[in-house]
Amino acid sequence: MEKVYINSIGSISAQKTFDNNDFLEEITTYEDNIIPVIEPNYKDFIPPAAARRMAKGIKMGVVASKIALEEANLTDIDAIITGTGMGCVRDSEKFVTAILDNNEQFLTPTSFIQSTHNTVAGQIALGIGCKGYNFTYVHSSVSFESALIDALMQLELKEAENILVGGVDESGEHTNAIHKLIQHIKPEKINSNELLNSKTAGAVFGEGANFFVLSNKKQDSSYAQVLGVKTFNTLAISDLLANLEAYLKENNLSATDIDVLISGNNGDIDYDNYYTELTNGPFKNTQQVVYKHLSGEFNTASAFGFWLGAKILKTQQIPSAVAINTIKTKGFEIVLLYNQYRGKNHSFTLLRRC
Amino acid sequence: MSTGVAITGMGIISAIGNNVSENYSSLLEGRTGISHISKIDTVHKGSIMVGEIEFTNAELEAKLGLSADNNYSRTALLGAVAAKEAIADAKITNIKDYRTGLISSTSVGGMDMTEKFYYDYLESEDNRKYIEGHHAGDSTEKIAEQLGIDQSLVTTISTACSSAANAIMFGARLIKTGKLDRVIVGGADCLSKFTINGFKTLMILSDTYNTPFDENRKGLNLGEAAAYLVLESDFLVKKEKKKVLGYVVGYGNANDAYHQTASSENGDGATLAMEKALAVAGLEPKDIDYINAHGTATGNNDLSEGRALIRVFGKEIPEFSSTKAYTGHTLAAAGAIEAVYAILSLQNNIIYPNLNFKTPMKEFSLIPQTTLKEKALNTVLSNSLGFGGNCSTLIFSK
């Protein structure tokens, strides 16, 4: 089996991450329960006329993928695999609103077309003329990890050499409004610095696009090796550690081999106890990192965690904004990511320095 | 030819039947499921024609034994019914005996409930249970729960009209690479005002019965459906002495990279998908005995797909037909519906008629099979082509 590397990255998030030379030097703090991305100047990447027609999710995905392709020094790619929980949800909202408000009359197709979940992957393919494999996974908080599993299978078996993998989700007004009503979004506005210690239910919703070129050919720009990914649709909290240990064992690792644990806790008091099983348990004396106070919660937020892991391994630095302890400050070899959303759709991802 | 991945069970619910045997009878009898919209509260009732499933949501809930406080969308209800039939067909008694995953697909997800309660959610608490049921992964989660699949690989694919073919492809690869011993694959999509109006704005809905590959075709009829296959590893099949219904021997996905919704005139993506699938199967075009075409009866699809068939098969195109005139275009479920039909073809050595065909298209001399035909079949090729240029081909064998 071939080894698989993260050869490049492209990130649009609620922090200024679209410049690959930066690594969370400047942190933007929010005092809200919904946070937007810091957008690059799209005109630098997409012709303005085309950009005007594109949904935000498409723009974010197209630009993040361009940044990743450029860094990997590629103009074409063997496959495009994306994950998205909701697709271009603003266009879904627009089309439903138009149907309801106009009693199914005077509708135009643009928002219907853009609401299709695979529209970002399709637009990326269209933009670079990629006729290769093109898949989109849409399964809540394992959307991105499902895309990773697919890409890893192809690269490990040498069915492809370079695959663009990404997670993208945009924030939608109606979706946010109704998720506030059912307390999936915190009722109160909260400072990013306090979010992960809040004692309230719900998350702060965000959005973002994080794209990567994965390859079985290591190159100068490579960030890390991807050792593996595993997802679970359900996991009782009492079964979490046993399953994690079994997964590490499959990779000939144990908890003590992990240099950095990146947790996807989002400050929701009802579900963050999954993470404390790890952070107060076998990883108590491990360097711990968090990120959802910077990115917000969304279905593909874990792709931002993946970005963070790749950056840490390449730069061998952990920005202070994401470190929750200072047990280890150098010599990072292996990173473990753990994520779940509302107790479902769990994932473990292992990265190694390369 | 590659040995492929064994199919040991299947289940289906569509406008032409509530299970596999009812679907097969309708196929043999040439009975279409297309009629005017009757179940959805839309201004297009009585004008637009679709393929509806008879059961109401309440009847489906009763069939599944769900409590009154359930928050199943119609997509989840249809999916659970079809997936349960597949599990029973594969004679699985304890799903936890082997590492079992679920790969489902949908395009509409829980949109049927979202469009119904969109403004109501803001005003009243009554129906807010459906908010969580909107996202595409929700129906898959519910199907997994119905089947008892836990602590496992469960995910959802949404690539428009090729979604279920891609779910079957991904599932087959998970078996081939040894990641799972068994995987339930397929898709579900219910009808909604969202999709009906969406396709209407694209002006590709027929105002009458759809006529695949006909010169005077006027567009597609939408349909609702769900279908699932059980794929099992060779090890499991041998150990449990499972009856094999057929094999997934080839698969290929490619992108047309031509237009956000339309297919290229030359069918580049479909050609690539068929070529890839043949290569994976280790087959030559001449080895294919029957093609279940995507054949939606839109002007664009049938021309593009027809040209792709000519590019791949040359002058020796085997019998081909589209079954969309029976079921309507069932979007993200279509690839699974037609996979079930392909297996039934192989089992019975039967080619289904392409209903409603009268006049050959002027661009080429392709004529679909228009009558029920018996023929010894060893391999069936099935195409699914979708928005975003997404083109997929599956090849099934005995």
UniProtKB/TrEMBL annotation, chain A:
It comes from the Bacteria. Keywords: Transferase. One of its GO terms (molecular function) is 3-oxoacyl-[acyl-carrier-protein] synthase activity. Residues 46-218 form the Beta-ketoacyl synthase-like N-terminal domain. One of its GO terms (biological process) is fatty acid biosynthetic process. The keyword Transferase applies. PANTHER family: 3-OXOACYL-[ACYL-CARRIER-PROTEIN] SYNTHASE, MITOCHONDRIAL, POLYKETIDE SYNTHASE-RELATED. This is 3-oxoacyl-(Acyl-carrier-protein) synthase. The lineage of its organism: Bacteria, Pseudomonadati, Bacteroidota, Flavobacteriia, Flavobacteriales.
UniProtKB/TrEMBL annotation, chain B:
CDD domains: KAS_I_II (cd00834). Gene3D superfamilies: 3.40.47.10. One of its GO terms (cellular component) is cytosol. PROSITE patterns: KS3_2. GO terms for biological process: fatty acid biosynthetic process. Residues 2-398 form the Ketosynthase family 3 (KS3) domain. GO terms for molecular function: 3-oxoacyl-[acyl-carrier-protein] synthase activity. It holds the Pfam family Ketoacyl-synt_C. Keywords: Transferase. Belongs to the thiolase-like superfamily. Beta-ketoacyl-ACP synthases family. This is 3-oxoacyl-[acyl-carrier-protein] synthase-1. It comes from Arenibacter echinorum. The lineage of its organism: Bacteria, Pseudomonadati, Bacteroidota, Flavobacteriia, Flavobacteriales.
